[in-house]
């Protein structure tokens, strides 16, 4: 893994704000998808960006054991926190993240799925509200879009403000030569991602994103065997229907409130148990 942004000299060009982009290689090697990711990076290289790369295959991250310590006690209780935390910190420090994600059986490669399992507690306690993502996937023939969609829905659950998707049919096993059309599409979407990140504009979240935010906030009043990390986390958002600084329309605010009320009603009749 590379060191982090603070060790890189940041320069600004033509008045654009210099932004920090983290690139996460979620595949087990540097194959077709990495090649296309590098094309996007080359295209963006002339802009005011500092890049940092993480290759998940270099991390040696063991499988999530399913201990649920992250949900109950906090993510620092994860037996693999030492490996996961540096990547979480890099995401935190970045303005945007590019995910390089080969299509394996229409879904995420196991190596990335394992990483996202370690971050699943964020569906209960989201945090990356100001981050934007570009998700690049190549497939042999079909289902690159299912792959980018799957990751997009996970990332919005973590709080990501917007996910740009670049699904591409490479028709190749390890010998992809991007066509002119693929390159045009790559540059177009990479350009949109860059402009959005550097604008600093925050978008109104989709309705689906309001469900976990308001439901888990309300469920902190649910009866449990002992307090969980969720109980410490949610009071900071009391009375808020989404994270501060992220715009909401009146309709979405109302929807968030309704979800919150449903959660409150549900919490009265629900008990959650934990094995100690
Ligand atoms: C384990 C595995 C699963 C795959 N699943 C699919 C699939 O569901 N659909 C498809 O069209 N191609 C599939 N392929 C082909 C890859 O998606 C395709 O070669 C892609 O460009 C690989 O990217 P990479 O070289 O970055 O790993 C699969 C390849 C592998 C190795």
Automatic annotation (TrEMBL):
<dbReference type="InterPro" id="IPR051796">
    <property type="entry name" value="ISF_SsuE-like"/>
</dbReference>
<keyword id="KW-0285">Flavoprotein</keyword>
<dbReference type="InterPro" id="IPR005025">
    <property type="entry name" value="FMN_Rdtase-like_dom"/>
</dbReference>
<dbReference type="InterPro" id="IPR029039">
    <property type="entry name" value="Flavoprotein-like_sf"/>
</dbReference>
<feature type="domain" description="NADPH-dependent FMN reductase-like">
    <location>
        <begin position="19"/>
        <end position="156"/>
    </location>
</feature>
<protein>
    <submittedName>
        <fullName>NAD(P)H-dependent oxidoreductase</fullName>
    </submittedName>
</protein>
<dbReference type="Pfam" id="PF03358">
    <property type="entry name" value="FMN_red"/>
</dbReference>
<dbReference type="GO" id="GO:0016491">
    <property type="term" value="F:oxidoreductase activity"/>
</dbReference>
<keyword id="KW-0288">FMN</keyword>
């Amino acid at each position: 893994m590379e060191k982090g942004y603070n060790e890189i000299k940041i320069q600004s060009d033509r008045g654009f704000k210099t932004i920090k982009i983290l690139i996460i290689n979620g595949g087990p090697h540097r194959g077709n998808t990495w090649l296309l990711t590098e094309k996007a990076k080359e295209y963006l290289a002339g802009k005011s960006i500092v890049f940092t790369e993480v290759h998940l295959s270099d991390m040696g991250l063991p499988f999530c054991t399913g201990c649920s310590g992250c949900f109950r006690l906090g993510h620092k209780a994860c037996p693999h926190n030492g490996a996961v935390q540096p990547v979480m910190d890099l995401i935190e420090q970045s303005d945007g993240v590019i995910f390089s994600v080969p299509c394996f059986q229409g879904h995420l490669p196991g190596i990335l799925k394992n990483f996202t399992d370690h971050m699943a507690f964020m569906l209960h306690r989201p945090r990356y509200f100001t981050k934007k993502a570009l998700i690049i996937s190549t497939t042999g023939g079909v289902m690159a879009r299912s792959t980018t969609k799957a990751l997009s829905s996970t990332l919005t659950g973590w709080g990501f403000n917007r996910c740009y998707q670049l699904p591409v049919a490479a028709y190749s096993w390890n010998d992809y030569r991007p066509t002119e059309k693929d390159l045009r599409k790559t540059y177009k979407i990479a350009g949109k991602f860059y402009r959005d990140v550097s604008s600093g504009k925050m978008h109104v979240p989709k309705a689906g994103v309001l469900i976990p935010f308001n439901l888990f906030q309300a469920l902190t009043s649910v009866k449990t065997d002992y307090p969980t990390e969720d109980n410490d986390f949610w009071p900071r958002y009391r009375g808020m229907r989404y994270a501060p600084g992220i715009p909401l329309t009146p309709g979405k605010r109302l929807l968030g409130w309704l979800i919150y009320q449903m959660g409150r009603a549900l919490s009265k009749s629900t008990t959650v148990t934990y094995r100690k």
